[in-house]
Design a protein that fits this description.
Structural class: mainly alpha
Shape: elongated
Largest sheet: none
Distance between the termini: 35 Å
Helix content: 55-70%
Number of strands: 0
Oligomer: single chain
Strand content: under 5%
Length: 245
C-alpha cells in the first residue's frame, strides 16, 4: 500500500484554524445545569461529560455529540463544546462521532444567526480541513467531507475552486481519484444522507462533469506524463468522458 503523502503546511493551517475556534468560542462557559431529557441522558452520561469537558476524547463526548441540541443542552452549550468536537472530528480516525450528524447540527442551531466572528471561525475551519484533506494523498474521506459541507449548508464553491486550481501533486491525484469514484458510483452524492441537500448534490455532480474539471486533468496529465502516477489522470479523464450524457 502506498504511503500517505502529507502536506505539513496544510496541517499547520488546520491547527491554526482549530486554535481560532477555541479562541472564538471560549466566551461560552461549561453549564453544569444543562437541561437533558431523562429518557435519553442519564446521570452517568452527565458525570462523564462534566468530568472530561473540553479535554474529553471522542468516546467521552460521543454521547453528548449524539444528543446535543435535540435532547441535551442548547445552542450556547453546543458552542462551548464545538471546538473540541470539531477538533476530534479531524484528529480521530475512525471517529465514533459521524461527521454528517455532528455538522448537521449547525443549521439546527441557526449558526447563520450567530455573530460574524463565530461564523468566520467555522468557515475558516471547514476550509482549512478541506485544504488539509486534498493535500494528503490518498484522501478517501473527501466524499464524507463534501457531505459535511452539504449538511452544514456551506457553499461548496470556494473549496471546489481551491481544489481544482491546486498545483500540489497530492491535491491533483485526489481530484483524479474522487472523479473515478464518482463515475464508478454515480449515486455517491445521492444517497440517503444527501437527500436533504439536493442543491448541494447537484452542485458537486455538475462540478465533476464540468468540462473545466476534465480539462484540468488533461492538463496535468501532460505535465506529469513521465511520472508513474500520470495514468491516474488519464483514467480519470476517460472515466469522465464516458460519464457524459
Amino acid at each position: 500500500m502506498e504511503e500517505p503523502i502529507i502536506d505539513d503546511d496544510a496541517r499547520q493551517g488546520l491547527q491554526q484554524a482549530i486554535g481560532l475556534l477555541y479562541q472564538t468560542f471560549s466566551r461560552y462557559p461549561l453549564n453544569h445545569n444543562m437541561r437533558a431529557c431523562p429518557c435519553c441522558v442519564d446521570h452517568l452520561d452527565k458525570r462523564l461529560l462534566f468530568r472530561t469537558g473540553l479535554q474529553g476524547s471522542a468516546q467521552d463526548l460521543a454521547r453528548y455529540a449524539s444528543e446535543a441540541l435535540y435532547t441535551w443542552g442548547n445552542a450556547d452549550d453546543f458552542r462551548h463544546f464545538l471546538p473540541r468536537l470539531f477538533e476530534l472530528q479531524v484528529s480521530t480516525a475512525p471517529s465514533p462521532i459521524e461527521g454528517h450528524h455532528l455538522f448537521g447540527k449547525l443549521p439546527y442551531a441557526k449558526w447563520r444567526t450567530w455573530p460574524d466572528e463565530e461564523q468566520r471561525a467555522i468557515e475558516s475551519f471547514l476550509m482549512a480541513w478541506g485544504r488539509c484533506l486534498v493535500a494528503t494523498y490518498p484522501a478517501n474521506q473527501i466524499p464524507d467531507y463534501l457531505l459535511v459541507l452539504a449538511v452544514a449548508r456551506v457553499d461548496m464553491t470556494p473549496f471546489l475552486g481551491v481544489w481544482r486550481a491546486a498545483e500540489a501533486v497530492p491535491a491533483l491525484r485526489n481530484l483524479a481519484m474522487v472523479a473515478r469514484m464518482f463515475v464508478n458510483r454515480p449515486d455517491m452524492f445521492r444517497d440517503v444522507f444527501w437527500a436533504e441537500t439536493p442543491l448541494a448534490s447537484e452542485q458537486i455532480e455538475t462540478w465533476f462533469r464540468d468540462p473545466a474539471t476534465e480539462a484540468r486533468l488533461i492538463e496535468v496529465y501532460f505535465r506529469f506524463e513521465a511520472e508513474p502516477f500520470a495514468e491516474e489522470f488519464a483514467s480519470a479523464v476517460d472515466a469522465l468522458g464516458w460519464s457524459h450524457p
